């Protein structure tokens, strides 16, 4: 039993490290956790096979890179389908290439959908032509993202160097 607990604890620690920086090498993870590198490789491989680690991805500041993209969050209110509830509608919406994430949420709306496009008009057209007409969709509200301050724990704006602080006496 203790070996299973230790293996689970190692998995959890490896996941935390990879979530913070997916480029951390197996040897570095092994050093950080006091494990054998082969054990780390094996654990990561098993986590990938089990679908726990789904993908490795870079967090990109598109504005700094000079790449123009428009992102929007769409609140979607649904009428659930008999037998499948929200799942079948969420699955259908997920298949659109413009859709980056779909989440079932609590509150006034049922789904929170994140969409990317080249222009606001393109995103608005997508919502009006692809999501709103779905039979189960009762209402949509689109929120265009104007500026990102923090994403996945990473603060985007660095503090300006040389900026003077106000001094009060």
Write the layout of secondary structure elements.
Elements: H1 2-20, H2 26-33, H3 37-49, H4 62-65, E1 70-78, H5 87-94, E2 99-104, E3 111-117, H6 120-131, E4 137-144, E5 150-151, E6 154-155
Antiparallel strand pairs: 1-3, 1-4, 2-3, 5-6
Helix pairs in contact: 2-3
Outline of the structure:
With 169 residues, this protein is α+β, with helices and mostly antiparallel strands. It has six helices and six strands.
Descriptive overview:
The protein folds into 2 domains: 48 residues, Orthogonal Bundle (Arc Repressor Mutant, subunit A); 86 residues, Alpha-Beta Plaits (2-Layer Sandwich). It is extended, with a radius of gyration of 22 Å. A hairpin with a 2-residue loop joins strand 5 and strand 6. The protein has 169 residues and is α+β, with helices and mostly antiparallel strands. Helix 2 packs across helix 3. The protein has 6 helices and 6 strands. The strands form 2 sheets. It has a 4-stranded antiparallel β-sheet. Strands 5-6 form a two-stranded antiparallel ribbon. The mean pLDDT is 91.
Which features characterize this protein?
169 residues, 38% helix, alpha+beta, Alpha-Beta Plaits, 2 domains
The CATH homologous superfamily name of the largest domain equals: Lrp/AsnC effector binding domain/regulation of amino acid metabolism (RAM) domain
Tell me the name of the CATH class of the largest domain. Alpha Beta
Question: The CATH topology of the largest domain is what?
Answer: Alpha-Beta Plaits
Q: By helix and strand content, what is the structural category?
A: alpha+beta
Total number of beta strands: 6
User: What is the level-2 CATH architecture name of the largest domain?
Assistant: 2-Layer Sandwich
Kindly report how far apart the N and C termini lie: 62 Å
SSE run: HHHHEHEEHEEE
Strand order of the largest sheet: 2-3-1-4
Total domain count:
2
Beta content comes to 15-25%
- Rg (CA only): 22 Å
| Morphology | extended
Spans where pLDDT lies below 50 across 5 or more residues: none
Percent of residues in helical segments?
A: 25-40%
Helix count from the secondary structure assignment? 6
The whole-number mean of residue pLDDT values reads 91
**What can be said about the biggest beta sheet?**
4 strands, antiparallel
């Amino acid at each position: 039993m203790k070996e299973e607990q230790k293996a689970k604890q190692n998995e959890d620690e490896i996941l935390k490290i990879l979530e913070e920086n997916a480029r951390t090498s197996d040897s570095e993870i092994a050093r950080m956790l006091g494990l054998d590198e082969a054990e780390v490789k094996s654990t990561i491989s098993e986590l990938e096979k089990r679908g726990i680690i789904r993908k490795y991805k870079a967090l990109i500041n598109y504005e700094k890179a000079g790449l123009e993209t428009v992102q929007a969050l769409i609140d979607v209110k649904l009428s659930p389908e008999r037998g499948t509830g929200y799942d079948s509608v969420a699955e259908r919406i997920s298949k659109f290439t413009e859709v980056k994430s779909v989440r079932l949420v609590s509150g006034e709306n049922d789904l929170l959908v994140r969409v990317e496009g080249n222009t606001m008009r393109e995103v608005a057209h997508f919502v009006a032509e692809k999501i709103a007409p779905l039979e189960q969709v009762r209402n949509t509200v689109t929120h265009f993202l104007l500026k990102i301050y923090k994403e996945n724990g990473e603060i985007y704006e660095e503090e300006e160097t040389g900026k003077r602080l106000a001094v009060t006496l």
